[in-house]
Design goal:
Elements lengths: L3 H16 L3 H6 L12 E3 L11 E4 L8 H10 L6 H6 L10 E5 L6 E4 L4 E5 H18 L5 H26 L7 H16 L6 H17 L7 H5 L5 H15 L6 H4 L5 H22 L8 H12 L2
Parallel strand pairs: 2-3, 3-5
Antiparallel strand pairs: 1-2, 4-5
C-alpha cells in the first residue's frame, strides 16, 4: 500500500491533470464541483448531427486509499478531460450503448466488458502510472511535472486502446491478426489525429513515446510459455511497434530514434509504409459506421483514402 505522502502527492497531481492547469490555477478552482453527481451515469447531450452519445460513470471504491483519487476524478469529470474521447463521442452510429467507467479493480488495469458494453479504467492504474512516472523522472533527471504528463499520456492511450476493442465488438470489425496489436495501432492513430487543440504534433508524439516507455517498463525480460501464448504481444514488441508508427509519421524528424536504439534500421526502413497502411486500414474499417451528421469527417476520410 502506498504511503500517505505518496497518496497525497498523487491526489494533488490528479487535481492538476483533471483541471487542465497548473498547481496555482487548480488551487484557485478547488471549490468548483462537477455537474455530474457522485457515482452517477451521465450521457453527454447528443445533437441531431451526432450519433448516440457515450455514457460516463464513476463508481465509488471501497478501499480507503482510493477514495481521494475517486473524489478528484469525479470533481473534475475525468472522461470529459480526454480530448480524443470527446472527439469520438457521437461520431459513430453505435448499435447499442457504450459506457466509460472508472472503478476499483483490485489491481491496475483497463479493460472492455462486451456483455455490459463498458470500458473500465481502474483507479489502481492512476496510482501505478504516477509512480512509474516518478521513477522515470528520477532516473532521467526530468522536470517536476513529468509524472503528471506520464500519467495523462498513458491514461489517454489505455482508454483509446479499450475503446478500440469496443468498436471492434460493436461493429463486428474484421481483425485477422492479433486484436491487441490492432487496437494499439488504433489508439496511436487516434492520439495523432485527435490530440488536444492546445497541443502541438510534437507534444502528442512525445506522449506516445511515454506510452512506449510504459510498455517496455512492464517487461521483465524473462518469458515462459504463458508469456509467449498470451493474446498480448511481448512488452518489447509493443514498444517497437509503437515506435515504428511514430517514426513512420515523419522519418526525417525522427531519424534520431534509430541512433538512440529506439528502433532498428531494418524496421525503420518499412515504417513509413507500415504507418500509412495502418492508418488507411482503420479509416476504411470505420468509415461506414460514421454517424449521418459526421459529413466533414467522411469527406476528410474519403480524401485520405484517395491519396497514394
Amino acid at each position: 500500500m502506498p504511503s500517505s505522502s505518496f497518496a497525497t502527492t498523487l491526489t494533488m497531481a490528479l487535481a492538476v491533470l483533471l483541471a487542465g492547469g497548473t498547481p496555482a490555477t487548480v488551487a484557485a478552482g478547488d471549490a468548483r464541483k462537477s455537474s455530474t453527481p457522485t457515482g452517477s451515469v451521465a450521457a453527454q447531450p447528443a445533437t441531431a448531427a451526432r450519433g448516440p452519445a457515450f455514457e460516463y460513470a464513476y463508481r465509488p471504491p471501497s478501499a480507503p486509499d482510493l477514495q481521494p483519487i475517486y473524489q478528484r476524478v469525479v470533481e473534475a469529470d475525468l472522461w470529459r478531460q480526454l480530448p480524443e474521447l470527446q472527439e469520438l463521442d457521437g461520431l459513430f452510429a453505435l448499435p447499442r450503448r457504450l459506457r466509460f467507467v472508472t472503478a476499483e479493480c483490485g489491481e491496475p488495469g483497463a479493460f472492455y466488458r462486451p456483455d455490459q458494453g463498458e470500458v473500465v479504467l481502474c483507479y489502481e492504474s492512476l496510482r501505478t502510472l504516477y509512480a512509474q512516472g516518478q521513477a522515470h523522472r528520477q532516473a532521467l533527471g526530468l522536470a517536476e511535472d513529468h509524472p503528471l504528463r506520464y500519467l495523462r499520456a498513458n491514461v489517454r492511450f489505455m482508454v483509446l486502446h479499450e475503446a478500440g476493442h469496443a468498436l471492434v465488438d460493436l461493429f463486428d470489425l474484421p481483425v485477422t491478426g492479433r486484436q491487441e496489436d490492432a487496437v494499439d495501432q488504433l489508439a496511436a492513430i487516434l492520439m495523432l489525429r485527435f490530440g488536444g487543440r492546445d497541443e502541438s504534433p510534437g507534444e502528442v508524439i512525445e506522449d506516445l513515446r511515454l506510452v512506449a516507455n510504459w510498455m517496455l517498463s512492464r517487461s521483465t525480460g524473462a518469458y515462459d510459455i504463458d508469456a509467449f501464448a498470451d493474446e498480448h504481444a511481448l512488452g518489447e514488441q509493443r514498444f517497437f511497434n509503437l515506435q515504428c508508427l511514430v517514426y513512420g509519421t515523419d522519418p526525417d524528424a525522427f531519424a534520431g530514434m534509430v541512433d538512440a536504439g529506439d528502433l532498428t534500421a531494418a524496421r525503420a526502413a518499412g515504417c513509413p509504409r507500415e504507418s500509412r497502411q495502418t492508418s488507411r486500414a482503420w479509416v476504411r474499417l470505420l468509415l461506414p459506421y460514421l454517424a449521418p451528421g459526421a459529413q466533414a469527417y467522411r469527406e476528410e476520410a474519403a480524401a485520405f483514402l484517395r491519396q497514394r
